[in-house]
Design a protein that fits this description.
The complex is a heterodimer. By secondary structure, chain A is an alpha/beta fold. Chain A is about 40% helix and about 25% strand. Chain B is built from ten helices and 21 strands. Chain B is rod-shaped and about 155 Å long. The chains are: A alpha/beta, B alpha+beta. The interface of A and B includes residues 22, 26, 57 and 95 of A.
């Protein structure tokens, strides 16, 4: 069942892993961008967003993720989405997120791609 | 303007053309208004040595100025100096803490406010620099138009992609819902998709039976159901299936700026998803029905197998007699039964029975009767006593609407003596030597009707040489043709009296053929069972 949005983050060898839980909508998207900015302003360029506990996303949430991808592109940063629900993966593909971001099955696999 | 100044301007303008073009290219590439401000600062510093650049933006006349780019806070206190009008304004005041102040009305009815301080070298702005500056301000205006167009294009592409996502997910949702076989999961998935595809911030689904809410789903799960159904911005859709109403409600359509009311497309999407739920529920219902039918079919097949195993594949040979039997089951599993068992004392028990009703319960009751007969027949207790015991067993083993009509004749093959009990079965037919017909129907009520110790009265008689006995179930006289006319007792009795071939099996085949001739292809509605005995 979809819960209220929560997130946590950790720094692994200068790569930020953001773990989300719940509906990625206006609130969820803003929280992800806020968390991202916290690290981005300190010059960190590599990010993993682990969506294992997020099963639904709306287009407002996606617009925040695109904003984040655009910011990373300006500094040649890299973003990898992991643990994607099949429907979210399809949605991201149609919305064009994987033209500039990447995907991996899980966080461990993602970390090997940096 | 003097000729010298004009020539100087033309000369400097020629040199600056590339700079203007590059400036526009840089500004037009800006992906945000902040980037535009930063780039504008770079251009002025590079081209005119102006380092004290302050750019402000006002979304409309009523809103406050927002700082886009400024390195000096003191300018934010001078924003009242920026004049708002529908036309471009610029001034170069002498007695202000800045050198240039300018307001540009923009394409989207917003405004740029620009305040410039001293140049890097502290020199005053020359006339040519003032002209160049105004060209750069025009370039900024044009770049802002390009930025707005780029933004609109991006939004349009995003909206188109979102429509593709909506269509794709709508199709996918229908398939996924149909693949789930638990209604709770189906409803939850439908609500999730409806919420996300319409950009709702929350949604709820009530299942209502007879006006009462029997279950609810709220998404995200911490929200209050009533709060969703009473939201200012909401859309609702209801579908009904088998006495249950499924009431969907989505609340607060999200945008980047906040929430707004839903549009027609959102309502169409919600309705489509709700309809998909109905379709899935109907499919699920039909699927369950088909499974149930299949299960019943299998059970009937098992019951039929049991029954066929109980009915003897081959009857024993009785010296001095010829015996033959048949059981033709109807499409459903019937409850007919016949047998001829050889007893320990050399006698033979001829049995025929018919359980009321069809299906698995009837087959099981036949099985119980068969097992009881096996247990009691060799005990050589009087038939009337055995009938009381079996009646009690059948009564306790059967539901209230089930009973068995039963006939047994124990034959002593040496002298043709028959010990008979008829428990509610059709009269058994005896064709005497003189070709007269005798009906044997003495006995008692059918097995399983009462368990009050009611006696079963037996009958003894002798089957003389040349005499014939026919045991049958009502499937023969009641066999119907297309006009629902029965073969009838009379026709059967006439056939019995008029046909007496040498072999018992020939009689069985002949009477079945005669019944078939009557029914003329009409599907058989009951089992056809008969046992025929000739004393040679």
């Amino acid at each position: 069942m979809v819960t209220e949005f929560k997130l946590s983050s950790e720094n692994k060898e200068n790569c930020i892993i953001i773990n989300t839980e719940g509906y990625i909508n206006n609130i969820g998207g803003q929280k992800i961008v806020d968390e991202f900015n916290k690290y981005k302003n300190n010059g960190i360029n590599n990010y993993v967003i682990n969506l294992q506990e997020s099963k639904i996303v709306n287009s407002i949430g996606i617009s925040f993720l695109i904003e984040l991808i655009e910011k990373l592109n300006e500094t040649n940063g890299k973003l990898i989405f992991t643990n994607l629900d099949p429907t979210i993966e399809k949605t991201f593909t149609i919305m064009g997120l994987f033209q500039f971001a990447h995907k991996a099955n899980n966080v461990e696999e993602a970390l090997k791609l940096f | 303007m003097s000729k010298v100044l004009s020539e100087d301007l033309v000369s400097k303008l020629s040199l600056q053309v590339d700079s203007f073009q590059d400036g526009f290219k840089i500004l037009a590439k800006s992906s945000s208004i902040e980037e535009l401000g930063l780039n504008f600062n770079h251009i002025l510093r590079g081209s005119l040595l102006i380092t004290d650049v302050n750019l402000f933006h006002k979304r409309n006349k009523e809103l406050e100025w927002i700082t886009i780019f400024s390195k000096d806070n003191r300018y934010s206190k001078l924003l009242d100096d920026l004049t708002i009008s529908s036309s471009y304004s610029i001034s170069f005041p002498d007695e202000k803490p800045y050198k240039v102040i300018c307001t540009i009305p923009l394409i989207d009815k917003s405004f740029f406010g620009i305040i410039l301080g001293n140049k890097l070298d502290g020199a005053e702005y020359s006339d040519i620099e003032k002209i160049f500056l105004q060209i750069f301000l025009q370039i900024l205006d044009n770049a802002y138009q390009a930025y707005i167009n780029y933004k609109k294009e991006k939004q349009l592409i995003f909206a188109l992609k979102h429509r593709v996502v909506q269509l794709n997910n709508l199709i996918g949702t229908g398939i996924e819902i149909s693949n789930l076989h638990k209604i709770g999961y189906q409803l939850e998935l439908a609500l999730e998709r409806a919420v996300s595809l319409t950009n709702s911030s929350k949604g709820a689904l009530k299942t209502i039976k007879n006006g009462k809410v029997v279950s609810t789903i709220v998404l995200p799960m911490n929200y209050d159901l009533d709060e969703i159904f009473s939201a200012k911005y909401k859309i609702e859709a209801e579908v009904e299936f088998q006495g249950l109403t499924y009431s969907f409600c989505l609340a607060n359509k999200e945008t980047r700026k906040g929430i707004e009311d839903f549009d027609d497309t959102d309502y169409i999407l919600l309705s489509a998803i709700a309809m998909q739920v109905t379709g899935a529920l109907e499919n699920e219902h039909l699927h369950k029905e088909a499974l149930l039918k299949e299960k019943i079919k299998k059970e009937l097949s098992v019951a039929s197998t049991i029954q066929q195993k109980i009915i003897p594949a081959k009857l024993p040979e009785i010296p001095g007699y010829d015996i033959s039997g048949i059981n033709i089951p109807s499409a459903e599993v019937g409850g007919d039964y016949y047998d001829c068992m050889k007893l320990n004392d050399g006698r033979f028990a001829l049995i025929i029975a018919d359980v009321a009703g069809k299906g698995v319960p009837s087959a099981l009751l036949v099985s119980t009767l068969n097992a009881s007969l096996f247990s009691y027949l060799d005990l050589q207790i009087p038939l009337s006593e055995m009938a009381v015991k079996i009646n009690s067993i059948i009564f306790n083993a059967s539901p209230p609407d089930k009973f068995i009509t039963f006939f047994i004749a124990v034959l002593n093959p040496e002298n043709g003596e028959l010990d008979i009990i008829n428990a509610g079965h059709n009269p058994i037919l005896l064709l005497k030597k003189d070709k007269s017909l005798k009906k044997i129907d003495a006995g008692g009520v059918a097995f399983g009707m009462f368990d009050m110790g009611l006696p079963f009265l037996g009958e003894q008689m002798v089957l003389e040489k040349g005499e014939r006995l026919m045991l049958y179930t009502d499937g023969i006289p009641e066999a119907m043709n297309e006009k629902e006319e029965e073969y009838s007792d009379k026709k059967m009795e006439d056939f019995f009296c008029e046909n007496y071939p040498d072999n018992a099996s020939d009689f069985i085949n002949d009477i079945v053929a005669d019944v078939r001739k009557h029914t003329a292809g009409t599907p058989q509605s009951d089992d056809i069972t008969a046992l025929y005995l000739i004393r040679k």
